[in-house]
Task: structure prediction
Amino acid sequence: MSLTALPPTLARMLNELAPLAATYARNTTFLDTLVRGFTPADWRDRRAGNHALWLIGHIAWTRNAARRLLGETTLLSPWEKLFGFGSSPDDGDACDPADLLAAIRSGEAPLLAGLALRTDSDLAAALSFSHPMGKTLGEFLNFLPWHETYHLGQLGTVKKLLGKTSA
Result:
């Protein structure tokens, strides 16, 4: 069966949004590998700039923000203000990495469901805020997994500087 024979919403999901969903799922698996074996001190080591705790907090914050952009009406978690744009790594030092990792994992299914429910007109809608990486919801949603992957690369650098093995 060709994509043109599928219902438009399903065809669009397979064509446009499935790569985003796959990237989020792959990033979660990669994240688990990257942080395996971290000690409490490792989470706050700043040799590479942003420490691992801020990096995972920022990823969790970004995923929650994406869920809200997709229409979810979740309340802000108390820790979110510590990891948004303009935050400092020191802001979230009191947070528990396990809580942030749990937020990333538990938020993945609602995020993917929110992506699947978007229509073409939803994706073409103008953002309610200004951002250099997109003027529409669809453009911005395509930017977010790249942004997350960038921060996972930073986390990989942190791990290497800590002398941790790759597995």
Notes: Helices lie at 8-35, 52-69, 97-117, 120-124, 137-161. The first helix runs from residue 8 to 35. The chain has five helices and no strands.
